[in-house]
Structure formats: structure tokens, C-alpha cells
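Quick bug: MAP1A protein output formatted oddly.
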Amino acid sequence: MPEDELSRSSHSNPGKNLVNGIKTNPASNSPKSSLSVPMGPPVYVDLAYIPNHCSGKNTDPEFFKRVRASYYVVSGNDAANGEPSRAVLDALLEGKSQWGENLQVTLIPTHDTEVTREWYQQTHEKQQELNIMVLASSSTVVMQDESFPACKIEF
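Here's what came back:
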């Protein structure tokens, strides 16, 4: 398309297929699949917090394919809202299986939940195959009149 035609078409309908300035796919109503994010190389980090308390609303296998962490923190503790989400924990397995390299990954749940325990037990063999370790809290921090479980992470 010539530059002057491109310019006219973008001015005739400004904001078409844009959500918060990001190009969307009008054929899809799903928030996850409607955002057009350019593909690029994966990002490697030491520690990543799984977004939205490990809710399935906005974390899928693509997150784990693109954000490759040595440690992932799972902070969900609200079963009524699906936090943590079994689908997100399964997405970690699916995403990690496509890395093409067997880097050690440690999952750090901040709460002991039924969902996390069941996922751990039902997928333990797959976790071992993918070199994923689930870190259980084995320490307690006592501060003034409060105590809470804690994990020590060293880099």
C-alpha cells in the first residue's frame, strides 16, 4: 500500500482494533489471545512472580515459554477465585517442556493449598522429567508477636 493510502486509512478510523494502544484481533473476544505481542527471544530471569496470584485469567503456557526463570513464586491462596489456578501450574509444565534446554526451575508456593498439593502429587513424575523442584517452606520467621513460614533463596 502506498504511504499516502496507508496514512489516509489510519486517519479514517483512528484506534481501530486498538485496546490501550495495542493492536488487537477483531475476530477474537478472548483478552489473552486478542493482544498482538511481537515474538522475540525468551527472557531469562533469576526470579519471576507468577502474575495475578497465579490466577488463570492472564497467565498461560506462552508466559512460561517467554519468561524463563530459575525461580517462580506462586502466591495464590484464594480457592474461591481460583488462586492458585491448576491451569497455570499445568501451563508451567507445558511451557517448560518447550524450552529445549533442561535448566533447573524451582517453584516457590507462598501458601500450602489443596490445589498446589494435588498438582504436586499428580504431576511429580513430569516435574522430575522437566527438572522442576517445588520448594516447601521449612523455616518459620518470628517477628515480635507474629510468626510465618519462610523460604531462603540464594543466588
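Actually, after a second look the formatting is fine. The two ends are 52 Å apart (CA to CA). Closing.
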